[in-house]
Write a sequence for this structure.
């Protein structure tokens, strides 16, 4: 009897367990229609909702949201609505939606109809409609689209899509106002800009920088008066940086100028004290060997060195800034550089620029005490002859020329007053622009691709980079560079990189990389 009782008790317990399990496996209740929405069997209409509802009844394939209380639809806004993966129609219209995430519609693979009309959208994130593979109808009307680089992708998309899209119009900028976005072309947008970003920092101060190529390698040389070196760096094609190569000992180097003559490399080292010298590079063993002294009776206080070719012969010039010295020209004779001509005595020249004017070689000498003077090369005398002054400005620290669309320009930079841009026309230089440049001792025009730049150094603030505007034929402010008291610049293109080197007198010497930025890709 006891055994029979135990069996009956076990059956009762098992039945209770089965009943309990059966009750626990009941299907969950279907989500209700959100309080701010009204739902039918297959659609939901939401009004004055403060956020996208967390759930909807099953079977919803059409969603309309009107007069919502939010202006941004973030990434994955519909990701929690798993039942909406078969959503075919979405109408988010007559709201104040201003911003959409690029991934707002991620997961809505079956969406065929989408309306974003009558919102406050000015731009749409690139690739917004990428996930919508079967989209057939799109309505963007009633938005204030700004037709700049931010909508260039939309122009391309409208040209390629098979979806039906009613006409959408630009609200800004002025030149596109009222135009149909679908009628714009990619060429209507200038979306490629540039940026100079610090690429390499050198642990020294310097007052000159020059770049050159020799035996297939790229080099940069820096005058370092503090450390007592004319330092030569070589470009490492593996690490893609400059690394130390050789040093030429110098007591007070102010300029280190490479001169490639007859297949060989020479380095002209201008010093404030102890005289200036010329070195020759020897391969075995690899070293710079001094081969010549520069006459100290002519060059007493050198400030700048330049090299140039005239009538098939090689020359270099030393701008002398002392009261007793004179700017001097030296000519290569086959076994050395020898004095050829003295220029501009007693004028305290601090810079020189060699250029062609009207098909004839000229030199422009700038001085801290006198207006810039122009000398013209006389082929009969084989000397430079004074030609003219190009302005009445004193305190011109540096002079540099550049060409734009076959027109010659000259920039005169000043430490106290504004710098000047002059254009060569009607056999004279005519001032066409002034640039604020208080504290500037260095100017450098350079071009990368079709872009013409001008960088003005400053001892008191950021150096300023300007970009040439071809429409107005003027330089416009483009970027500020945080380089301290630059004294010289040089441009080098190597391994697909365009590098601007800046010699700093009071801080680290820097190399900037010129980067192209596609604004339409943001």
């Amino acid at each position: 009897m006891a055994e029979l009782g135990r069996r009956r008790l076990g059956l009762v317990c098992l039945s209770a367990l089965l009943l309990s399990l059966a009750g626990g496996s009941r299907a969950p209740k279907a989500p209700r229609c959100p309080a701010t929405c009204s739902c039918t069997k297959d659609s939901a209409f939401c009004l004055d909702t403060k956020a996208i509802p967390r759930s909807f009844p099953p079977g919803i394939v059409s969603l309309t949201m009107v007069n919502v209380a939010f202006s941004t639809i973030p990434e994955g806004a519909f990701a929690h609505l798993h039942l909406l993966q078969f959503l075919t129609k979405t109408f988010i219209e007559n709201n104040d939606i201003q911003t959409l995430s690029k991934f707002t519609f991620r997961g809505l693979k079956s969406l065929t109809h989408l309306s974003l009309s009558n919102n406050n959208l000015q731009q749409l994130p690139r690739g917004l409609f990428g996930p919508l593979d079967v989209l057939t109808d799109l309505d963007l009307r009633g938005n204030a689209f700004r037709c700049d680089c931010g909508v260039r992708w939309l122009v391309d998309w409208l040209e390629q899509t098979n979806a039906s899209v009613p006409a959408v119009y630009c609200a800004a900028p002025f030149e596109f106002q009222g135009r149909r976005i679908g009628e714009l072309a990619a060429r209507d947008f200038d979306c490629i800009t540039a940026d100079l970003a610090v690429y390499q920092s050198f642990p020294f101060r310097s007052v000159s920088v020059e770049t050159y190529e020799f035996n297939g390698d790229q080099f940069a040389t820096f005058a370092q008066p503090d450390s007592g070196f004319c330092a030569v760096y070589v470009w490492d094609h593996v690490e893609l940086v400059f690394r130390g190569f050789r040093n030429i000992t110098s007591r007070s180097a102010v300029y280190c100028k490479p001169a490639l003559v007859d297949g060989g490399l020479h380095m002209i080292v201008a010093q404030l004290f102890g005289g200036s010298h010329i070195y020759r590079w020897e391969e075995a063993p690899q070293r710079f060997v001094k081969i010549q002294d520069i006459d100290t009776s002519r060059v007493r206080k050198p400030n700048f060195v330049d090299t140039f070719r005239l009538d098939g012969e090689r020359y270099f010039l030393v701008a002398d800034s002392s009261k007793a010295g004179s700017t001097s020209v030296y000519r290569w004779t086959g076994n050395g550089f020898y004095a050829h001509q003295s220029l501009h005595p007693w004028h305290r020249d601090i810079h020189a620029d060699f250029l062609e004017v009207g098909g004839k070689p000229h030199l422009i000498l700038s001085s801290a005490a006198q207006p810039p003077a122009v000398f013209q090369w006389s082929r009969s005398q084989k000397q430079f002859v004074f030609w003219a002054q190009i302005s009445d400005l004193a305190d011109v620290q540096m002079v540099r020329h550049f060409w734009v669309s076959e027109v010659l320009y000259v920039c005169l930079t000043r430490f106290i007053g504004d710098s000047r841009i002059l254009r060569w026309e009607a056999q004279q230089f005519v001032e066409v622009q002034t640039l604020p440049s208080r504290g500037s001792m260095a100017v450098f025009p350079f071009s990368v691709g079709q872009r013409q730049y001008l960088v003005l150094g400053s001892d008191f603030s950021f150096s300023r980079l300007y970009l040439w505007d071809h429409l107005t034929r003027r330089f416009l402010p483009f970027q500020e560079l945080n380089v301290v008291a630059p004294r010289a610049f040089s441009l080098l293109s190597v391994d697909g990189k365009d590098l601007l080197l800046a010699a700093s007198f009071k801080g680290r010497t820097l190399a900037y990389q010129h980067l192209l930025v596609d604004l339409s890709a943001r």
